# Entry
Amino acid sequence: MSGEVVAVASIRLDVWLWAARFFKTRSLAKQAVETGKVDVDGQRPKSSRAIRVGDALRVQRGDEIFEIAVRGLSDKRGSAPVAQAMYEESAASKQARHELHLRRAAERTGYQAPEHKPDKRARRLIRALGDLDAL
# Structure
């Protein structure tokens, strides 16, 4: 039964965030909770807070914001499909993250990486001008 969603009444918030694959380690999940990146039912929790099925979470990871409802509990980190079965993301949250992705892609469209590294002369020019986009 390793990695499956199990029937328990409640579980620690930081353990659930780690098991649901929002953070790579439990200590990163705990740090995110302590720094206010996670809200449970609109309140700022402690990392030891017990969460239950049906709780609403708002998780900020970098620029992405996930608004989710807890659908299952597990204290073991399983595969991605198992982790995704533990929560349900709202449609508005999915749409906002998709728009953020499109905006980032649009910002990158004008950028062209250089074909090769600058040579010695070009590096000196860049340093002299103080501008990395000179060449």
